UniProtKB/TrEMBL annotation:
A GO cellular-component term linked to this record: F-actin capping protein complex
Record's function text: F-actin-capping proteins bind in a Ca(2+)-independent manner to the fast growing ends of actin filaments (barbed end) thereby blocking the exchange of subunits at these ends. Unlike other capping proteins (such as gelsolin and severin), these proteins do not sever actin filaments.
Pfam families from the UniProt entry: F-actin_cap_A
Name listed for the protein in its UniProt record: F-actin-capping protein subunit alpha
GO BP field: actin cytoskeleton organization; barbed-end actin filament capping
Keywords: Actin capping, Actin-binding
MF-aspect GO terms: actin filament binding
Quaternary context: Heterodimer of an alpha and a beta subunit.
Family: Belongs to the F-actin-capping protein alpha subunit family.
């Protein structure tokens, strides 16, 4: 039976699944491997660009705008159109190249919304929380994503938090993502956190965990008095912090137990020296001893 040769389109379709599953910080490595397999850059660019767009927005990729210091989160929540995204913090709209992961053509953009003051205050509070509780590389943003009927004022505020920690020299990379939606009218606050860590020294182990959050409505409450925006933002971030801390503590407890039970049974115990055995050196000692007795 002869082998069936796959078309370039079929190869790209299969490769797309690998790309969407790329661990944090390793999408370029996966792309380069795919590029070598496809061996058709023109077809690859056409077929893979929509996949990269999905990956970048779902993973909350961060990018630095020209002539700015802070990072901007790429997501469907701050998308202006197919090629442009809005950074409400720097008040700019820019073009983003999903293939090369670069931002260009940044232009001034002023949000026309009575909720802009609230967004800015919440953004400042969330940014402070992210910088204090996540390692270097944490970024955050608060942007409006919904409006009432017939042009009514914005009712939904979306908060994004992403923290990347890459340590390829130690064979691991990780990413924290959390998305919170706040209903300003009802006071309802819901969130979802997603943690992925990839460890690949002499193997391939991944932590992939998701947690849904629902904050009690009376814990924050609806925003009734606009003069209390700062207090509202403080209470909101307090509830986000409490929920995310509980999740992180639960993760720590769970994987500490796994390390002492299941994982311990999967690895060879170290000798009393607590160092890995150099089997090549032991083999040389054995050969030397045998030669000495001849």
């Amino acid at each position: 039976m002869s082998d069936v040769e796959l078309s370039v389109e079929e190869k790209i379709k299969i490769a797309s699944g690998f790309l969407l599953s790329s661990p944090p910080g390793e999408v370029n490595d996966v792309f380069n491997d795919i590029r070598g397999i496809i061996n058709n850059d023109e077809a690859l660019q056409v077929g893979i660009t929509p996949v990269l767009e999905e990956y970048n927005t779902e993973q909350l990729l961060t990018v630095t705008l020209p002539d700015t210091d802070g990072a901007v989160i790429i997501s469907k929540h701050n998308r202006a159109d197919a090629d442009h995204f809005i950074d409400p913090r720097s008040k700019q709209i820019f073009k983003f190249d999903h293939l090369r992961q670069i931002a260009t053509d940044a232009q001034p953009h002023i949000a026309e919304s009575s909720a802009e003051e609230l967004r800015a205050v919440v953004d400042e509070a969330v940014s402070k929380y992210a910088s204090e509780h996540f390692p270097e590389g944490a970024d955050s943003g608060a942007g409006r994503t919904g409006a009432g009927h017939d042009g009514d004022d914005v009712q939904i505020l979306t908060i994004l938090i992403v923290s990347n920690k890459y340590s390829p020299q130690n064979f691991w990379n990780g990413r924290w993502r959390s998305i919170w939606t706040v209903n300003l009218a009802s006071g309802e606050v819901k969130g979802r956190a997603h943690v992925v860590v990839h460890y690949y020294e002499h193997g391939n182990i991944q932590l992939n965990s998701t947690k849904e959050f629902t904050v009690p409505t009376d814990a924050v409450g609806p925003l009734v008095d606009r003069s209390q925006i700062k207090e509202y933002a403080r209470q909101l971030v307090k509830q986000i912090s409490t929920s995310e801390k509980q999740y992180q503590f639960a993760l720590n407890d769970t994987y500490t137990q796994l390390s002492e039970s299941i994982f311990k049974g999967l690895r060879r115990n170290l000798p009393v020296t607590r160092n890995k055995i150099d089997w090549d050196k032991i083999l040389n000692y054995k050969l030397g001893a045998e030669l000495a007795h001849k």
